[in-house]
Amino acid sequence: MAQPRVEPEIAFRLGADLDRAITREEVPDVVDGVAAALEVLDSRWTGYRFRPADVLADNTSAAGFVIGAWQPADASSLDALGARVATFSVDDTVVATTSASAILGDPVPAVVHWPSTSRTVARR
User: Fold this and answer.
1) 79: three-class secondary structure by DSSP
2) Burial profile 47-74: b = 16 or more Cβ within 10 angstroms, e = fewer
3) Torsions phi, psi of 104, nearest 5?
């Protein structure tokens, strides 16, 4: 890898087809598991400085992913996701901390938004 980095993510495991628009209240009917995850990035662009077309040509800097243990997804656990915190440590020294609320203020709306976005992209 040229410039490896990791980003914290939340992985959603679908337990049903997500082939239509859904509401937030329907997310527990579609998502059957959540897990902490890491997106592994690597970019050929020095310092990760690129234009949108460059990063698309570089496969959005995607190099891999790691998914933790799946946890059940019910309405209360999904509602609590925004309060989750990820802490990165190197040799017992905290080097970065972030919150799941950095994902649109709450990660669950990303699941609601996904079907309409994926249909739009698929039509292009």
Assistant:
1) helix
2) eeebeeeeeeebeebebeeeeeeeeebe
3) 60, 25
117: number of Cβ within 10 Å: 10
Token code pair at residue 75: 């309405």
Q: How far apart are CA 77 and CA 32, in angstroms?
A: 11
Where do runs of H (alpha helix) occur along 1-124?
27-30, 52-57, 75-79, 108-123
Q: State the distance between the two ends of the chain, measured CA to CA, in whole angstroms.
A: 32
What would the pLDDT profile of 61-91 be if each residue is shown by its tens digit? 778 899 999 999 999 989 888 888 999 999 9
In contact, 9 and 105? CB cutoff 8 Å: no
Find where tokens 């905290």 sit.
94
Could you tell me the CA-to-CA distances from 61 to 15, 36, 55, 80, 103 in Å, in that order?
Answer: 28, 20, 6, 30, 19
